[in-house]
Design brief:
This protein is low in regular secondary structure. The chain has one helix spanning 26-34, and strands at 41-42, 55-56.
Length: 69
């Protein structure tokens, strides 16, 4: 039997971040969405000669530890 009791929970967003194929910050990501940017392209991180799949959504220009504002 389903519980009909409604629970109220609070959520606090303390920050936003985005590392995506169309931008490495929230601003770049949303700008890419607004402009209809496509994050899929030919794989560049390794040789795909022996693979059927040649496309991926690679994250570009990401440096761990760097701040993306």
């Amino acid at each position: 039997m389903a519980n009909n009791k409604v629970l109220k929970r609070r959520v606090v967003v303390t920050g936003l971040g985005a590392i995506t194929p169309i931008g490495n910050s929230v601003a770049e990501f949303w700008d890419g969405i607004r402009k209809g940017k496509v994050g899929i392209g030919e794989i560049t991180k390794f040789d795909t000669t022996d693979y059927k799949v040649k496309l991926a959504a690679e994250v570009k220009d990401f440096v761990p530890g760097q701040s993306y504002g």
